[in-house]
UniProtKB/TrEMBL annotation:
The protein's Enzyme Commission number: 3.1.1.61, 3.5.1.44
Keyword Transcription: no
Molecular-function annotations in GO: phosphorelay response regulator activity; protein-glutamate methylesterase activity; protein-glutamine glutaminase activity
Post-translational modifications reported in the UniProt record: Phosphorylated by CheA. Phosphorylation of the N-terminal regulatory domain activates the methylesterase activity.
The gene coding this protein: cheB
The name this protein goes by in its record: Protein-glutamate methylesterase/protein-glutamine glutaminase
Lineage: Bacteria, Pseudomonadati, Pseudomonadota, Betaproteobacteria, Nitrosomonadales
Domain of life: Bacteria
Recorded family membership: Belongs to the CheB family.
Length: 356
């Protein structure tokens, strides 16, 4: 008999069909069990007290109290791993991103049509994210003050513009936000691969653009990478770096997923290793799995400086741990200190004036 402790899940959704389908999906897994179902947050609150679940799956639109307000209250009073269930629309993507800001571990796009059939197709993603949530670190919010940056940086260029490449997955939306809002408006161009479904990355970029002193946008095929700009890989494509004379260009590809992901961090990092080499800095952030580990190792071998987010500040210490284990990382740093470490490294690389 298997004595392994099961992941105890509370399903919160106003749809009776969704509660049934999620319960059947979760109950079919040997390492999980549904300890309760709730049709609204008030019922959920009572069940949390009585059943003490390991993970909550939470709908957004519910009677009596919406899911975001319930999540905000929960994270303030009794923080615990929450997986959001959201409809994939422009409105829904904004709601899901707000949920991540409030402390949800991750989200899954809620099927709109033929729910039973779609649930069968996305069932693997749901249970995988429940497992990740069960092992996630629920971080205190707000986070600690960020490490301050010096007022002026003078740097010597090697031969071309420098570049920062960032990869992340579970927990990455908040980590990327923490990184970007602390960087100067005229720093190196940044290319970012965050595991996120199509339809969410545009809203994610727009949210970051409103908070950051850099310009943040979805990357476009053939677009030049400019200083003071950060480019998010679209949720439908791999994003790659190419060289054109003295410039870097972005290329998008809808080739097969790599490490089950498109966009893939490995695809981005490998292209940066090939075309930017020692003029790049690589950063691998919180995330489940190993996507990006081999790519940042390639960057390391090509002469790039490489950083990994430390375990204490990660929601899921999967991707950084894999990269550290294979010897790909020069520095392991808390997310709040990464911006200062990046800019110190930029100083050693060459001469554009960067003013804070």
């Amino acid at each position: 008999m298997n004595s392994q402790k099961k992941i105890r899940v509370l399903v919160v959704d106003d749809s009776a069909l969704m509660r049934l389908l999620l319960s059947e999906l979760i109950g079919a897994e040997a390492d999980m069990e549904v300890v309760g179902v709730a049709s609204d947050p008030y019922i959920a609150r009572a069940m949390i007290r009585s059943h003490n679940p390991d993970v909550i799956t939470l709908d957004v639109e519910m009677p009596r109290m919406d899911g975001l307000k319930f999540l905000e209250n929960l994270m303030r009073l009794r923080p615990m791993p929450v997986l959001m269930v959201s409809t994939l629309t422009e409105k829904g993507s904004d709601i899901s991103l707000r949920a991540l800001e409030l402390g949800a571990v991750d989200f899954v796009s809620k099927p709109k049509l033929d729910i039973a059939h779609t649930m069968n197709e996305c069932g693997g993603e749901i249970v995988e994210k429940i497992r990740a949530a069960a092992h996630a670190r629920i971080l205190n919010r707000p986070r600690e003050p960020l490490c301050p940056l010096p007022k002026i940086w003078e740097r010597r260029t090697l031969s071309t513009e420098h570049l920062i490449a960032v990869g992340a997955s579970t927990g990455g939306t908040e980590a990327i936000k923490t990184l970007l809002v602390s960087l100067p408006p005229d720093g190196p161009g940044i290319v970012i691969a965050q595991h996120m479904p199509e339809g969410f990355t545009r809203s994610f970029a727009a949210r970051l653009d409103s908070l950051s002193r850099m310009r943040v946008k979805e990357g476009e095929d053939g677009e030049r990478v400019l200083p003071g700009h950060a480019y998010i890989a679209p949720g439908h494509s791999h994003m790659l770096l190419q060289r054109s004379g003295a410039n870097y260009l972005l290329r998008l590809s809808q080739s097969e997923p790599v490490n089950r992901h498109r966009p893939s961090v490995d695809v981005l990092f490998k292209s940066v290793a090939a075309h930017a080499g020692p003029n790049a800095i690589g950063v691998i952030l919180t995330g489940m799995g190993k996507d990006g580990a081999q790519g940042i190792l390639d960057m390391h071998h090509a002469g790039a400086h490489t950083l990994a987010q430390d375990e204490a500040s990660c929601v899921v210490f999967g991707m950084p741990k894999e990269a550290i284990a294979i010897g790909a990382i020069d520095e392991v740093v808390s997310i709040g200190d990464i911006p200062a470490h990046l800019m110190r490294q930029v100083v050693t690389m060459g001469p554009r004036s960067v003013r804070i």
